[in-house]
UniProtKB/TrEMBL annotation:
The gene is gcvA. This is Transcriptional regulator GcvA. It comes from the Bacteria. SUPFAM superfamilies: Periplasmic binding protein-like II, Winged helix' DNA-binding domain. The keyword Transcription regulation applies. Keywords: DNA-binding, Transcription, Transcription regulation. Residues 5-62 form the HTH lysR-type domain. Belongs to the LysR transcriptional regulatory family. The keyword Iron-sulfur does not apply.
Length: 295
């Protein structure tokens, strides 16, 4: 096997030869000029000849140094390109999408199997979070966001609009709005309040339902917990028809009556600088495939 000098010495030489300065090489490699000088002296001892002519305030390559430098430069350049290519392929195999806990659990997670089947070479990571994740910081690659458009610095593509309707377990046998008087109202504690925030007070006003104490009932801070409580028959809630579409289709939940309150829209967002990212493109195609099939 061919014996080579230590890689550390060759790296120190390549940097010093490129800059013609031990100090600038030390700054680039994060060491001291003395360490650079020591590595080059070890390399010179290994090769049996001087690589630099030490002159006042500068250095110059000797004939041996001029012969070795182009080879080292090309070798380190090739290694750098190869490492960058491998890292790029590795990064492309994983993509992280973030959204609220309720949307992640109720909509994304049940559909992961179809993403994996269509993209066997990509690992999909779900990052549930109740606060807006800065996609420029690398915590996640893309996101599903509710409302809030436009999104500064991001590409945003609308997925679907939401609505909120009275939803309950079929076991409660709720059939008419008047039945609300005899059942527990479940409330979600919304962090953001706006004209589209659903509430039983707003629903009863629009539906023309009176004599219902819209402040009574059970309040849960997480929307996904409200959904679980509704499935368990703990009461009736104003739920996102997007998040419970699977449960409605399977008969775990029913919408006994209307009307539905208008909600905001869900958007798929990602940084403008990541437009060509194959992982993000795969997530986008999967999401729109799911919305088109209505699955």
């Amino acid at each position: 096997m061919l014996q080579l000098p230590p890689l550390t010495s060759l790296r120190a030489f390549e940097s010093a030869a490129r800059h013609l300065s031990f100090k600038r090489a030390a700054d680039e490699l994060g060491v001291t000029p003395t360490a650079i000088s020591h590595q080059i002296r070890l390399l010179e001892e290994t090769l049996g000849g001087k690589l630099f002519e030490r002159q006042p305030r500068k250095v110059a390559l000797t004939e041996i140094g001029l012969q070795l430098y182009p080879v080292c430069r090309e070798a380190f350049s090739s290694m750098s390109d190869a490492v960058a290519a491998v890292m790029g392929k590795t990064q492309q195999r994983a993509v992280t999408v973030t959204s609220t806990t309720a949307f992640s659990a109720g909509w994304l997670v049940p559909r992961i199997g179809r993403f994996t089947a269509a993209n066997p070479g990509i690992t999909l990571r779900i990052h549930p979070c109740e606060t807006v994740v800065d996609l420029q910081r690398g915590v996640a690659d893309c996101a599903i966001r509710y409302g809030g458009a436009p999104f500064a610095g991001l590409v945003a593509e609308p997925l679907f609009d939401d609505s909120f309707a009275p939803i309950c377990s079929p076991g409660l046998n709720i059939r008419m709005p008047e039945d609300l008087k005899h059942h527990t109202l479940l409330h979600s504690e919304w962090r953001l309040q706006n004209e589209f925030t659903p509430s039983w007070r707003k629903w009863c006003k629009i539906a023309g339902v009176r004599d219902v104490d819209t402040r009574a009932g059970t309040v849960l801070t997480d929307e996904s917990h409200v959904i679980q409580a509704t499935i368990a028959g703990q009461g009736i809630a104003l739920l996102s028809t997007v998040l419970v579409q699977d449960e409605l289709r399977r008969g775990l939940l029913v919408q006994p009556f209307g009307p539905a309150l208008e909600g905001l829209g869900y958007h798929f967002v990602f940084p403008k600088t990541a437009t060509g990212n194959p992982g993000i493109r795969a997530v986008r195609d999967w999401l729109f495939s799911e919305t088109n099939t209505g699955a």
